[in-house]
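Support case: phenylalanine complex. Customer-provided input:
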Amino acid sequence: MHEPTQAQPALPELLNDGLARVATARTTDELRALEREFLGKGGVIATLLAAVPSLPAEQRRAAGQGANELKSKLAEALAARERELQEQHLSAELAGASFDPTLPATPPRTGSLHPLTQVTRELEAIFTSMGYAILDGPEVERAYYNFEALNIPADHPAREMHDTFWCDRAGSLVLRTHTSPVQVRAMERLKPPFRAIVPGKVFRQETTDASHEHTFHQMEGLVVGEGITVGHLIGTLKTFLREVFRRDLEVRLRPGYFPFVEPGFELDARCPFCTKGCSVCKQSTWIELCPCGMVHPNVLRAGGIDPERWTGFAFGLGLSRLTMLRYRIDDVRHLLGGDLRFLEQF
Ligand code: PHE
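Agent response - structure generated as follows:
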C-alpha cells in the first residue's frame, strides 16, 4: 500500500465510509446522491485519479489501481443496494395488498387493417402478378379528365348518371365521380403497350342508404396494346375471379352503356355463395361484378394514342362492393363509418 498524501484520505477509509453509507441508504434518491459524490464528474474517485499524474512516479501505478478498485467496489455495492431497495418496495406493496398480483393482465389492444385495405391489397397482388402497374390520380379532378376526355361532353345526358360534387363555380373542378379519369392520365404518361390498375376513392352526391354512400372505392383497370380484344378482357376478369374466389366461376356479358367504352358491358359472375339463389344474388344466382368494355377510340385519342394501331379494354371494379361481398357486410355505410365495434371484427 502506498502512503496517503495530505489531500487524499486513505483508500480503505474511503471504501469503508462509502460502503457503510450505501448499505444504510433508504431510497434510490439517496443512492443517486452517493453515486454522484463518489463516482460522478468531479467526485471522490475522479479527484483521486486526477491527482495520480502529480504523484511520485513509483506511486502512480498503485494509486491508479487503488482508485479504480474503489470505483468498482462502490459501483457494485450501489447496484446491489438498489436491487435490495426495489425488492423491499415490491414486497411492501404486495403486503399492503393494494393490488392483486394474480389478476390476469389486460390484453394489449392491437389494431388491424381496414377490410377495404385488405381487399385492395389482395387485388393489387393479383393484378401486379399479371404485370399491371398500380397508378394513382387526384381526388379533386379536372372536369376535363372526369368527363370530356372520357367522351362525356358537357351537354351529354350521361353526366346525369354521375351526381357530381362540383368544386368551383366555373365548373372546371370536381370530386372525381369514378376512377376512370386516370385512364387518360395514364395514357398521357405511359406509352403503350401498358397495363394498369387504379384503386381509389370516388365521390357522388347521393342520398345515402344501405347500398349508397357519397364516398366509396373503385378500382379501375386499363390495358392498351396491339390486338387487344374482348377475349382478353373476359380472360383477365375470369382469372381475377379465380384468384379471389379460389375456383372457376361462370361469367356472362350483358350490354352496358358507358360513353368511354364501345362496346360496353356489364360482367356478371355466378354467385360464389350459392347454387340455387340466396340473399347475396337476390335469388338470381348471378352477381353483377363490374362494368367494362373496349376503350372508345375518342378516349384513346384524348390520351394521345392512335386508335388505328392500338386497342384496349377497361373495367371498373367496385372495391366497396367486393369488400362487402367478401365479408358479407350488409351496409356500405359501415365501411367509412369509423365505428370501432365494426372495425375490430377484422
Ligand atoms: N367508371 C364507370 C363508373 O364508375 C365504370 C366503368 C369503368 C365502366 C371502366 C366501363 C369501364 O360508372
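Residues 11-95 form one domain.

Case will auto-close in a few days if no follow-up is received.
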